[in-house]
């Protein structure tokens, strides 16, 4: 399943993956740089408001971001491994987006954070559907 670089749908999906991957990485980097969790000690002690450990979630987000960036770059380069990786990483994006929405809905002041998550979820579903055509 090779995607031709001249396929505008593939280029759009690649750009979407690159934007989502970079966006995820940048958002977490900004939160950590601002010291969002620094009052809790080292990385493996960070928790959310419910007391859940954050490090597994942050690592999963960064792995998803890295995979999306790799898949996007591979797609733009026309590499054979890019389409299967794209499907896996878009699935991971949908999962992390839906999972993260569970932190948004209970607290109405977080609703603005939900907009990029909804865009990621809907965009991921559409991209998967287009890749499977």
Proportion of strand residues: under 5%
The gyration radius over C-alpha positions equals 16 Å
Please give the share of residues in helix.
55-70%
Number of helices: 4
How many E-type strands? 0
Largest sheet: none
Structure write-up:
The protein is elongated, with a radius of gyration of 16 Å. The protein is built from 4 helices and no strands. It has helices at 8-33, 55-76, 82-104, 111-131. The protein has one domain (8-35, 51-131). By secondary structure, the chain is mainly alpha-helical. The mean pLDDT is 88. The protein is 69% helix and 0% strand.
Summarize this entry quickly.
The chain has 4 helices and no strands. With 133 residues, it is mainly α.
Could you give the topology of this structure?
Layout: H1 8-33, H2 55-76, H3 82-104, H4 111-131
Helix pairs in contact: 1-2, 1-4, 2-3, 3-4
List keywords for this structure.
mainly alpha, 0% strand, 133 residues
């Amino acid at each position: 399943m090779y995607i031709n670089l001249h396929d505008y749908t593939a280029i759009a999906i690649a750009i979407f993956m690159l934007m989502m991957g970079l966006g995820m990485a940048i958002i977490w980097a900004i939160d950590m740089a601002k010291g969002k969790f620094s009052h809790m000690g080292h990385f493996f002690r960070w928790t959310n408001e419910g007391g859940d450990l954050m490090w597994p979630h942050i690592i999963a987000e960064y792995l998803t971001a890295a995979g999306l960036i790799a898949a996007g770059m591979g797609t733009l380069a026309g590499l054979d491994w890019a389409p299967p990786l794209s499907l896996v990483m878009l699935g991971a994006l949908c999962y992390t987006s839906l999972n993260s929405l569970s932190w948004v809905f209970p607290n109405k002041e977080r609703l603005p954070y939900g907009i990029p998550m909804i865009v990621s979820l809907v965009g991921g579903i559409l991209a998967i559907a287009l890749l499977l055509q």
